[in-house]
Specification:
Largest sheet: 3 strands, antiparallel
CATH architecture of the largest domain: Orthogonal Bundle
Number of strands: 3
Domain HTH merR-type: 10-78
Protein name: MerR family transcriptional regulator
Strand content: under 5%
Number of domains: 2
Distance between the termini: 46 Å
Number of helices: 7
Order of helices and strands: EHHEEHHHHH
InterPro entries: DNA-bd_dom_put_sf, MerR-type_HTH_dom, MerR_fam
Pfam family, one: MerR_1
Radius of gyration: 21 Å
CATH class of the largest domain: Mainly Alpha
Strand order of the largest sheet: 1-3-2
CATH topology of the largest domain: Multidrug-efflux Transporter Regulator, Chain: A, Domain 2
Organism: Georhizobium profundi
Helix content: 40-55%
Shape: elongated
Length: 173
């Protein structure tokens, strides 16, 4: 007899549906605070339909898209669980709407200090902003004092995007 789509699922049912071992689901509970199955007597876990959808989104990002746990945590923090659920379901319209909503609620890049742009790694400032080439590489030397805060933030964002592309390419190789 099949359960209704709104019925709660045990950890074994969820693990089978997502093709994951049960210990991975328990581990994810420790890393993603948004996963909160209901626990009954004896610590038995029951997952709500929304919990399962979130797990599908997390699984898709980690296994199919190559994100790290830290990367998925950042996505959840910046965009919320609904965004990750939409990603897991392939709901492009919802992803775009949620991203636009998060962008309007986030502080603007102009208002943030360059090293405080949300989700971006700190980039060392100084005479050699980009470390291409050797010591005598004058083309790569940029006087960071001559750059405005906005331009520094934009350069940091571009550098982050390039590093993310490199990481993805390295995974494919």
């Amino acid at each position: 007899m099949e359960k209704s789509p709104d019925a709660f699922r045990t950890i074994s049912e969820v693990a089978d549906d997502l093709d994951l071992p049960q210990h991975v689901l328990r581990f994810w509970e420790t890393r993603f605070t948004q996963i909160k199955p209901m626990k009954r007597g004896g610590g038995r876990r029951y997952y709500r339909p929304d919990d399962i959808e979130l797990l599908k989104g997390i699984r898709h990002l980690l296994y199919d898209q190559g994100y790290t746990i830290k990367g998925v945590q950042k996505l959840l923090k910046q965009n919320g669980p609904k965004f990750v659920i939409a990603v897991g379901n392939g709901d492009v319209a919802s992803m775009e709407a949620l991203t636009a909503e998060a962008a309007t609620n986030a502080p603007s890049i102009e208002a943030a200090e360059p090293d405080q742009v949300i989700g971006r790694p700190k980039v060392p400032t100084g005479r050699r902003f980009f470390g291409f080439g050797g010591e005598g590489d004058k083309a790569a030397a940029i006087d960071s004092a001559a750059l405005s805060k906005e331009n520094k933030a934009l350069l940091q964002e571009a550098l982050y995007d390039l590093l993310e592309c490199k990481r993805l390419l390295d995974q494919v190789r």
